[in-house]
């Protein structure tokens, strides 16, 4: 029998959604929405899932959908100095691929920014800039990987002058290792994660590149354990020869708070990279780089909150005084 509780009904809808029973999922989502008070903070989440189910079923959002099932569109701010217009379809990047992470970089070395995208269990997208359009080239570039991914971070980790890619996988739809796609300089990529020692199997969410030991080679910090394993994060130190070694425990950055976001930045201005880690199952961490090890100073610095629920962090100079 179907559950009557709105929360259980919503869970039923998500289960049907994952099973690709989209019509049944739509019905369950609508039932869950109807069972909630109009002012419930859960309504926007339920509406979003309903929208995704409709898109998966029909490829479009029904124009005749009843108002209570639609996500309200807010009017543009007429006085805003800058406004944005969605041109994805016009330039050739409007793909429905359950998208997650993206990375902008000049992947083919022609001076123009290209776009790489990943989605859940779907082929990657690599879109090379061509005048005012983008050309889909993932297949020709060797990026046909049906496992998809969650986050994508780009960097020239081997310092050969071209941009490489690291893709994380979170295991919500089955265990999978991460990928390190090495750019051979011609715009073709090969997954070298296993050979390089960074094929992390511990349900990773995101990652960040940074030279933490000051040797001129980019290292890699990976946020792990978001699903069942609860594994601690990894800090892969680059040996400059194409291989990495996990030194998270050695350098005191093996956070096990189910991290959803990580960011490097020299917040104290001493010339080395520090690390901020946002956790969903514990306090956030501000890990100060003290040469051979890091020390958590988040509580003392007043940046450990919110507890149990942080997502994406980043460093920036909010008051333009030169400090992050």
From TrEMBL:
<protein>
    <recommendedName>
        <fullName>ASPIC/UnbV domain-containing protein</fullName>
    </recommendedName>
</protein>
<dbReference type="InterPro" id="IPR028994">
    <property type="entry name" value="Integrin_alpha_N"/>
</dbReference>
<dbReference type="InterPro" id="IPR013517">
    <property type="entry name" value="FG-GAP"/>
</dbReference>
<dbReference type="Pfam" id="PF13517">
    <property type="entry name" value="FG-GAP_3"/>
</dbReference>
<dbReference type="InterPro" id="IPR027039">
    <property type="entry name" value="Crtac1"/>
</dbReference>
<keyword id="KW-0732">Signal</keyword>
């Amino acid at each position: 029998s179907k559950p009557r509780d709105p929360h259980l009904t919503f869970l039923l809808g998500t289960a049907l959604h994952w099973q690709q029973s989209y019509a049944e999922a739509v019905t369950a989502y609508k039932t869950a929405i109807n069972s909630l008070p109009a002012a419930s903070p859960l309504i926007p989440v339920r509406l979003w899932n309903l929208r995704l189910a409709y898109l998966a079923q029909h490829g479009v959002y029904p124009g005749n959908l009843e108002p209570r099932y639609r996500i309200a569109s807010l009017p543009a701010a007429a006085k805003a100095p800058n406004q944005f217009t969605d041109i994805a379809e016009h330039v050739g990047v409007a793909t429905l691929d359950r998208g997650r992470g993206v990375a902008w970089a000049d992947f083919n070395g022609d001076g123009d920014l290209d776009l790489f995208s990943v989605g859940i269990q779907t082929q990657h997208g690599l879109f090379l800039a061509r005048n005012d359009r983008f050309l889909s080239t993932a297949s020709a570039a060797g990026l046909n990987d049906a496992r998809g991914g969650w986050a994508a971070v780009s960097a020239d980790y081997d310092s050969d002058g071209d941009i490489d890619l690291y893709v994380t996988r979170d295991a919500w739809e089955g265990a999978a290792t991460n990928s390190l796609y090495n750019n051979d300089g011609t715009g073709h990529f090969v997954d070298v994660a296993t050979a390089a020692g960074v094929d992390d199997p511990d349900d990773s969410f995101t990652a960040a590149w940074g030279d933490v030991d000051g040797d001129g080679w980019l290292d890699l910090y990976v946020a792990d354990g978001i699903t069942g394993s609860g594994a601690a994060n990894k800090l892969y130190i680059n040996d400059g020869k194409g291989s990495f070694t996990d030194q998270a425990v050695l350098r005191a950055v093996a956070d096990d708070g189910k991290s959803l976001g990580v960011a490097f930045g020299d917040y104290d201005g001493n010339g080395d990279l520090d690390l901020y880690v946002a956790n969903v199952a514990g306090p956030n961490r501000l890990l100060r780089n003290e040469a051979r090890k890091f020390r958590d100073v988040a509580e003392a610095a007043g940046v450990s909150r919110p507890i149990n629920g942080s997502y994406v962090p980043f460093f920036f100079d909010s008051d333009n005084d030169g400090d992050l």
